[in-house]
Amino acid sequence: MAQKRKGRRFLGIMKKKLLIAMYAILAVFVVLVGRLIYINITAGKEYEQKVLAQQGYTSTIIPYRRGDIYDTNGTVLATSKKVYNLVLEPKNILEKEDQKEVTVAALKKYFGISDSEMDTFLSNPESYYVVARKKEPYEKVREFKEYCATEDGSKVTGVWLEEEYQRLYPHDTLACHVLGYTVGGNVGTYGIEEAYNHYLNGSNGRVYSYLNDSSALEQTVEPAVDGYNLVTTIDANVQAIVQEKVDAWMEEIGAKNVSVMVMDPKDCSILAMYNSHSYNPNDAYDLEYIRYQFDTDEEFEDFKKNATDEEKVNALYKVWRNFAISDVYEPGSTYKTFTIAGALQEGVFNQEDTFVCNGGEMKDIYYIQCSHTHGTITLSQALEYSCNDALMQIGEAEGPKVFDKYQRIFGFGQCTNIDIPGEPDNDSMSMLVYHENSLNEVELATSSFGQGVTVTMVELGTAFCSVINGGYYYQPRVVKRIEDMNGNVIDNVDSILVRRTISEDVSEQVRKSLLGVVEAGTGGSASVEGYSIGGKTGTAEKHPRNQGNYLLSFIGFSPIDDPQVVIYVVVDEPKVEAQMYCGAAKHIFANIATEVFPYLNIYKASDEEFLNPDFTMEELPTPIYSGETPQNDVAGGNSNPYLAGDSVNVMLPEDTDDTTDDTSDDSDGL
Fold this sequence. Notes:
There is one protein chain. The protein starts with a helix and ends in a 44-residue tail after the last strand. The chain has 20 helices and 24 strands. The chain is globular and about 110 Å long. By secondary structure, it is α+β, with helices and mostly antiparallel strands. Strands 2, 3, 4, 5, 10, 18 and 19 form a 7-stranded mixed beta sheet that branches. A 5-stranded antiparallel beta sheet has the order 12-11-23-22-21, with helices on both faces. A 3-stranded antiparallel beta sheet has the order 1-8-9, with helices on one face. About 35% of the residues lie in helices and about 20% in strands.
């Protein structure tokens, strides 16, 4: 009996041990399965490729498609077209004579390969890879494929087509400085192509072909991921109007450079941006675009023949460089807008105050001139008549602290952080204006009317928008939306309100004064019949002084009560005998506005509102100084690229930190 109980206990113990062993094995199995699942999820591709590598396989790249760039209305500005590289396998082609005959005949017929080329391509009978043609269009490839599908064409062997994408700009030079171009297929350079390169690019896929254990051909496909599309704020029709008018003016009269920027003042989005010396992004390295840099055709031909590659690229930099973003200049009287706006906002003066202009002011040992002896004038007339004398009095009353405060509020001496590369960083920009600690008597006087300070077009244009839109300073932008290839919105690039600059009331006062500039002041020739236009002229004497060289500008908007568009024109050294008197920027503005205003549905003023003035005046500048002239009266001194006269090698986009944050003190805004 005891022996039976002992046997039962033994069996019970054995069952427990077996049960524990079974659970242990099950647990290990679960862990192993879990581990396999984890490895498959996290490193499946890696191990798959290791297995394939051990079995022997070939892989073919599936190229991704770079995203398209559209204008605000859906017009394609940049796209990618599939093209084909013709690849030959000499070893397979030469293997059988009948196949060779058919293959060679087809290649000659459909791809225009000559006998001598064919001999070269087939010279290595052991080769499996010879690129015979690059970037062939689909039309030519389709005819070849259709032939290969026939009975006769079925003997074609040792030929295959490698796919890739070619970047195309359907409208050639249109918006070239905004778009930029690509090199090496998908490397964005300058403009939107560079700034949004990581969005536009995708990732290549692959087709892995290999023999399995049964010697059957199997394939694993890893699909390509295409890039995203960009919808910009650029309006292709506005851009085309701008380019047409600038090109016509350059052909008729000419200048060192003409640049135009069209903006929506409500949020500082860019509708058009153009520099007169343009290029075609489809062939950005074509030296024909640098012809304007030479006085004669003989000099140009000699340069093409004898210049080094570095010299040629430096010449092309001048064409690729976006003046509106990268170059600095003295703005002249357009800067008076901000001096007066700051004085009104700070309560230094009001519209009822008057000034006496007697032709100039003595500052330190220098006599700084005005273009006229205007006599007694109001604050509005100081802007309308572009009176340097009155502006010097306003600047003196503001003092260095207040004057510099509003320079900073309006964004001068700071980068705008526009979303395309090439803009100088904040440290570089800060030295381009005089600040409180360096605004002595002479610098304060000249800065008040826009000489001595240097700006970029996008910097001044953005500040001007804030003056007329009620005092709202927005970060300028050229891209408004990012989409996938199916049109689904990935991200909206919303407008960014940076700060308030002036009040709604001061903005309205300045708009009325700017209306007076066009209707009864120096901007008369910028008027367009039927439209209420406000604006400001600028005629800056270039450095070195007293050489008769000027930079002329006009920035204008319409309508007065609710601004819908700003057009800013800068003409550097027009090719006329007396540059200061030609009114070039105003005429180009009027030519552009005549077509852009109706296109943008900007309404005309009624007969009662529209004023046809009996009196307008031209801005007739004289040299800044009468008598002794300072050796260097430009902010930043010799470190300012403007003084170099040719700043092409200064602050190029590849050297610029485009992610620099705005370090301005927003607390000074309203």
